[in-house]
Design a protein that fits this description.
Structural class: alpha/beta
Distance between the termini: 29 Å
Helix content: 25-40%
Order of helices and strands: EEEHEHHEEHEEHEHHEHHEHEHEHH
Strand content: 5-15%
CATH architecture: Alpha-Beta Barrel
Number of helices: 13
Shape: globular
Number of strands: 13
Largest sheet: 8 strands, parallel, barrel
Strand order of the largest sheet: 3-4-5-9-10-11-12-13
Number of domains: 1
CATH superfamily: Glycosidases
Length: 424
């Protein structure tokens, strides 16, 4: 998920991330313990809080602990005011951490200097304050992105990417860990698992970045890794998908072993494959296909029950010629049907009122119509809005319209467990 610009955030038709657990829903592995279902609500109502490039929070690097806490608290208060039930906080945006990680440096988005201790523990504070408000707090991780620039010397001297330059690929002006190297796969799981083990988070969430989005005229240079680890794979695309499949299955198993019942979910770009590419695909003509371009076979992950929830980023308006919102939602409802995997739809609140967007996005009722349409599919359990900044600013009143039309009652918060804080 995630745009890197400060407000518009949109890169072509690419989207954002997440999902949340509701009570009385069960995964393929059976009912989930109530301790991770922070609110009792008939539908999921969430928002993403993006930290990369200071998109949503903190507003700028270098805030004092009191200033950082106040800004984050204001976002949580806004979630309550909008009658939401969950927030998805980006805690590992660029191979760094918003908690004192033994694996990776403190995030530069906190202080402006990667590795500099901000003087407080944002993840601990976020979990405690979310729970105090009856909100679920899902920790959102980006598995492979190392930096939004391509200069390794700008990383801290002790950064794992500098200590293991053979792990890193420069592509499209950014740095990425190479998903084809087994040691990389193990390391990124270790880094994420530390937060799972150390905090009472309510879910583990990944966005849409696996192999990076295609960049015209460039190739992702994994020749050496393919030669070393490709094994019997003749097709590099199949090998890359296998690498991501392993990451998903292994992390799922690790989460379930560490904290049984803690939901694990992914928010993919919403077009798995176009129908003209694969008869199993959606009736769309999107320029990006997750299976072919990001090497993420999300349909298989859902059909095989490797996830607890999925949140496709359906960031198009109703009637879009290349990817009609209604068509995309119906396709995902069919994919999720009968799997036990919860389905939530990612909503492009950031497009509302943006003059660069088509006329549909200038109508305050467009997003409300999305939720009405979702209500026609019993498989859809709710909606997640990208992103928190727009939940607060409410462009053209689109979020207010959603609340008035669909969130007429505040989600019940009496189900909040007692004794749940940040670190256990």
């Amino acid at each position: 998920m995630g745009r890197i610009s400060r407000r518009g955030l949109a890169v072509a038709a690419v989207g954002t991330f997440a999902g949340v657990l509701t009570l009385n829903q069960a995964s393929a592995s059976g009912p989930r313990p109530r301790r991770y279902a922070m609110v009792a609500a008939s539908q999921t109502r969430g928002m993403w809080i993006a930290t990369v490039a200071n998109i949503d929070w903190p507003d700028k690097p270098g805030l004092s602990p009191d200033e950082g806490k106040a800004e984050l608290s204001a976002l949580l208060d806004a979630a309550v005011e909008r009658k939401l039930t969950a927030v998805y906080l980006q805690v590992r945006p660029t191979a760094d951490a918003l908690w004192p990680s033994p694996y990776e440096p403190w995030s530069e988005w906190l202080t402006g200097v990667q590795g500099q201790d901000p003087g407080w523990d944002p993840l601990d504070y976020a979990v405690r304050e979310a729970h105090a408000r009856g909100l679920a707090l899902h920790a959102w991780f980006n598995p492979y992105r190392v930096a939004t620039h391509d200069d390794p010397d700008r990383l801290t001297e002790e950064h794992p990417a500098r200590r293991h330059p053979e792990w890193v690929v420069s592509y499209g002006g950014r740095l990425y860990y190479n998903p084809g190297i087994p040691e990389v796969r193990a390391f990124v799981q270790d880094a994420m698992a530390d937060a799972v083990e150390s905090y009472e988070i309510d879910g583990v969430h990944w966005d849409d970045y696996f192999y990076p989005y295609p960049v015209a005229g460039e190739e992702f240079d994994d020749d050496d890794a393919f030669a070393a680890y490709g094994g019997d794979f003749d097709d590099r695309g199949d090998w890359r998908r296998h690498n991501i499949d392993l990451l998903v299955r292994e992390m799922r198993d690790r989460v379930r072993a560490t904290k049984p019942g803690l939901p694990f979910g992914v928010s993919p770009f919403a077009v798995w494959r176009n129908k003209e590419t694969d008869p199993l695909g959606s009736d769309t003509r999107a320029g990006v296909q997750t299976y072919d371009d990001l090497y993420a076979d999300v349909r298989t992950w859902v059909r095989e029950g490797w996830l607890d929830y999925v949140v496709p980023q359906a960031y198009w308006h109703i009637g879009n010629e290349a990817a009609d919102y209604e068509t995309v939602v119906a396709w995902w409802a069919d994919v999720a049907d009968g799997t036990g995997v919860d389905l939530y739809i990612g909503e492009a609140l950031y497009k509302a009122g943006d003059p660069a967007q088509p006329d549909a996005w200038q109508d305050p009722a467009e997003l409300s119509r999305h939720l009405t349409l979702c209500g026609e599919h019993p498989q859809v359990g709710g909606n997640i809005f990208y992103s928190a900044g727009q939940v607060v600013s409410d462009p053209i009143g689109a979020m207010s319209r959603v609340v008035a039309d669909h969130y007429d009652t505040t989600a019940a918060r009496s189900a909040q467990p007692t004794g749940l804080g940040g670190r256990p």
